[in-house]
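Journal club side-thread
Mid-discussion, someone asked how the predicted structure for our own chain would compare to the paper's figures. Pasting it here so we can look after the session.
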Amino acid sequence: GGGRGGGGGEGRGGSRLPRSASHRQQPLQPPPQPPPPPDDAASLPAASRWADLAALEARIKPLVRPVRGFPTADFVFGDVTPLLADAAAFGLCIDALVARYQHTGLVAVAAPEARGFLFGPAVAKALGVAFLPIRKAGQLPASVHQSDAVAMDYGERRLELH
Protein backbone atom coordinates (compact mmCIF):
# COMPACT_ATOMS: atom_id res chain seq x y z
CA GLY A 1 0.00 0.00 0.00
CA GLY A 2 1.02 3.54 -0.55
CA GLY A 3 -0.50 5.04 2.59
CA ARG A 4 1.24 7.39 4.97
CA GLY A 5 2.84 6.40 8.23
CA GLY A 6 3.13 2.81 9.45
CA GLY A 7 5.22 0.63 7.18
CA GLY A 8 8.94 0.13 7.52
CA GLY A 9 11.38 2.17 9.52
CA GLU A 10 12.77 4.15 6.60
CA GLY A 11 11.60 7.25 4.84
CA ARG A 12 9.39 10.00 6.07
CA GLY A 13 6.36 8.97 8.09
CA GLY A 14 7.69 5.47 8.88
CA SER A 15 7.95 4.26 12.44
CA ARG A 16 11.41 4.34 13.99
CA LEU A 17 12.94 2.23 16.72
CA PRO A 18 13.92 4.15 19.86
CA ARG A 19 17.63 4.87 20.09
CA SER A 20 18.50 4.26 23.72
CA ALA A 21 22.08 4.52 24.91
CA SER A 22 22.06 0.83 25.88
CA HIS A 23 20.92 -0.10 22.37
CA ARG A 24 23.95 1.61 20.82
CA GLN A 25 26.45 0.17 23.28
CA GLN A 26 25.80 -3.55 22.82
CA PRO A 27 29.12 -5.44 23.06
CA LEU A 28 30.32 -7.12 19.89
CA GLN A 29 30.10 -10.88 19.88
CA PRO A 30 33.18 -12.88 18.84
CA PRO A 31 32.99 -13.85 15.17
CA PRO A 32 31.85 -17.38 14.36
CA GLN A 33 34.57 -19.70 13.19
CA PRO A 34 34.47 -20.31 9.43
CA PRO A 35 33.64 -23.85 8.35
CA PRO A 36 36.54 -25.98 7.13
CA PRO A 37 37.06 -26.05 3.36
CA PRO A 38 35.12 -28.84 1.63
CA ASP A 39 37.00 -31.95 0.58
CA ASP A 40 35.61 -32.19 -2.92
CA ALA A 41 34.71 -29.71 -5.67
CA ALA A 42 31.17 -31.12 -6.00
CA SER A 43 30.25 -29.54 -2.66
CA LEU A 44 31.35 -26.04 -3.77
CA PRO A 45 28.92 -23.45 -5.18
CA ALA A 46 28.51 -23.56 -8.95
CA ALA A 47 30.56 -20.40 -9.58
CA SER A 48 33.60 -21.75 -7.73
CA ARG A 49 33.68 -24.70 -10.12
CA TRP A 50 34.31 -22.31 -13.03
CA ALA A 51 37.93 -23.12 -13.80
CA ASP A 52 38.02 -20.29 -16.33
CA LEU A 53 37.09 -16.90 -14.88
CA ALA A 54 37.14 -15.56 -18.43
CA ALA A 55 34.06 -17.72 -19.11
CA LEU A 56 32.28 -16.18 -16.12
CA GLU A 57 33.22 -12.70 -17.31
CA ALA A 58 31.98 -13.54 -20.82
CA ARG A 59 28.60 -14.51 -19.32
CA ILE A 60 28.31 -11.39 -17.14
CA LYS A 61 29.92 -8.56 -19.13
CA PRO A 62 27.27 -8.36 -21.88
CA LEU A 63 24.66 -7.79 -19.15
CA VAL A 64 26.33 -4.57 -17.94
CA ARG A 65 25.03 -1.92 -20.34
CA PRO A 66 27.37 1.03 -21.04
CA VAL A 67 25.50 4.36 -20.92
CA ARG A 68 27.68 7.09 -22.42
CA GLY A 69 27.33 10.63 -21.12
CA PHE A 70 25.71 9.72 -17.81
CA PRO A 71 25.90 11.32 -15.29
CA THR A 72 28.42 13.65 -16.99
CA ALA A 73 29.34 14.08 -20.64
CA ASP A 74 32.73 12.37 -20.35
CA PHE A 75 31.57 9.41 -18.25
CA VAL A 76 30.42 5.91 -19.25
CA PHE A 77 28.03 4.52 -16.64
CA GLY A 78 27.84 0.73 -16.22
CA ASP A 79 24.10 -0.03 -15.89
CA VAL A 80 23.66 -3.34 -14.06
CA THR A 81 19.87 -3.54 -14.35
CA PRO A 82 20.07 -6.10 -17.21
CA LEU A 83 22.29 -8.25 -14.97
CA LEU A 84 19.84 -7.93 -12.08
CA ALA A 85 17.01 -8.96 -14.42
CA ASP A 86 18.81 -12.21 -15.29
CA ALA A 87 18.39 -14.34 -12.15
CA ALA A 88 20.86 -17.00 -13.26
CA ALA A 89 23.60 -14.50 -14.13
CA PHE A 90 23.01 -12.50 -10.93
CA GLY A 91 23.23 -15.76 -8.98
CA LEU A 92 26.55 -16.57 -10.66
CA CYS A 93 27.92 -13.18 -9.56
CA ILE A 94 26.83 -13.77 -5.98
CA ASP A 95 28.12 -17.37 -6.00
CA ALA A 96 31.51 -16.22 -7.34
CA LEU A 97 31.86 -13.59 -4.61
CA VAL A 98 30.76 -16.05 -1.92
CA ALA A 99 33.19 -18.70 -3.18
CA ARG A 100 36.03 -16.19 -3.07
CA TYR A 101 35.39 -15.15 0.54
CA GLN A 102 33.63 -18.11 2.20
CA HIS A 103 36.67 -19.47 4.05
CA THR A 104 38.30 -16.17 5.01
CA GLY A 105 36.65 -15.64 8.39
CA LEU A 106 34.79 -12.49 7.40
CA VAL A 107 32.40 -11.19 10.02
CA ALA A 108 30.75 -8.56 7.79
CA VAL A 109 30.45 -7.36 4.21
CA ALA A 110 30.77 -3.59 3.86
CA ALA A 111 29.66 -2.14 0.53
CA PRO A 112 29.12 1.39 -0.77
CA GLU A 113 25.92 2.69 -2.27
CA ALA A 114 24.44 2.20 -4.76
CA ARG A 115 25.59 -0.96 -6.54
CA GLY A 116 27.09 -2.26 -3.32
CA PHE A 117 23.58 -2.26 -1.87
CA LEU A 118 22.46 -4.57 -4.69
CA PHE A 119 25.21 -7.16 -4.32
CA GLY A 120 26.49 -6.79 -0.75
CA PRO A 121 23.40 -7.94 1.19
CA ALA A 122 23.05 -11.08 -0.95
CA VAL A 123 26.72 -11.96 -0.40
CA ALA A 124 26.46 -11.23 3.33
CA LYS A 125 23.33 -13.40 3.63
CA ALA A 126 25.00 -16.29 1.80
CA LEU A 127 28.08 -16.00 4.04
CA GLY A 128 25.96 -15.71 7.19
CA VAL A 129 27.54 -12.39 8.19
CA ALA A 130 26.42 -8.81 8.78
CA PHE A 131 25.98 -6.24 6.02
CA LEU A 132 27.36 -2.74 6.64
CA PRO A 133 26.10 -0.05 4.26
CA ILE A 134 28.60 2.64 3.34
CA ARG A 135 26.88 5.91 2.46
CA LYS A 136 27.79 9.34 1.15
CA ALA A 137 28.30 11.90 3.94
CA GLY A 138 25.12 13.12 5.60
CA GLN A 139 22.91 10.13 4.75
CA LEU A 140 23.09 8.15 8.01
CA PRO A 141 20.96 9.22 11.01
CA ALA A 142 23.24 8.36 13.95
CA SER A 143 26.90 8.81 14.85
CA VAL A 144 29.21 7.69 12.08
CA HIS A 145 32.79 6.90 11.18
CA GLN A 146 33.82 9.16 8.30
CA SER A 147 36.47 8.55 5.66
CA ASP A 148 38.95 11.02 4.33
CA ALA A 149 37.95 12.50 0.98
CA VAL A 150 37.68 9.73 -1.61
CA ALA A 151 38.08 10.27 -5.37
CA MET A 152 35.03 8.66 -6.97
CA ASP A 153 34.00 8.18 -10.59
CA TYR A 154 32.59 11.69 -10.94
CA GLY A 155 33.77 13.73 -8.02
CA GLU A 156 35.35 13.65 -4.60
CA ARG A 157 33.28 12.61 -1.58
CA ARG A 158 33.49 11.51 2.01
CA LEU A 159 31.94 8.18 2.92
CA GLU A 160 30.32 7.21 6.22
CA LEU A 161 29.53 4.04 8.14
CA HIS A 162 27.66 3.45 11.42
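Post-session note: The longest helix spans residues 87-101.
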